[in-house]
Specification:
- By secondary structure, the protein is mainly α.
- It has one domain.
- It is 48% helix and 5% strand.
- The chain is built from three helices and two strands; from the N terminus they run αβαβα.
- The chain has helices at 3-21, 29-32, 49-73, and strands spanning 27-28, 44-46.
- It has a two-stranded antiparallel sheet with strand order 1-2.
- The longest helix is centred in the middle third of the chain and has 25 residues, at 49-73.
- The two termini are 16 Å apart.
- The mean pLDDT is 87.
């Protein structure tokens, strides 16, 4: 896995995790009972965004490390997702670990 691939994988994991973490412990103006005129009752009153960003960063690092290990170890490869046999037979001259020789 190249550095660019690793960074893109981490970014995708981070944003997906962040979107999952955002609604956790969210206090809306409707929940608190103090709706500011001109805003929706579902507008956040206490969002704890900084803490959620740190939680997301830590959990994303753990998820990324697990996926990085699975991908680089060869435990799961692209050919494992070739359910319709589109890729054809594997090249037997190339080593299975992805190295040049």
């Amino acid at each position: 896995m190249s550095i660019t691939s690793a960074l893109v994988l981490y970014a995708v994991i981070w944003f997906m995790t962040f979107l999952i973490v955002i609604p956790i412990r969210l206090k809306t103006q409707g929940d608190v009972g103090e709706v500011v005129p001109g805003t929706h009752a579902s507008s956040p009153e206490h969002h704890y965004l900084k803490a959620k960003a740190w939680i997301t960063t830590g959990s994303s690092a753990v998820i990324w490390a697990i996926l990085f290990w699975i991908i680089t170890s060869g435990l799961i490869t692209v050919r494992d997702f070739d359910w319709f046999n589109v890729m054809g037979p594997a090249d037997v001259t190339a080593p299975a670990d992805g190295t040049d020789g």
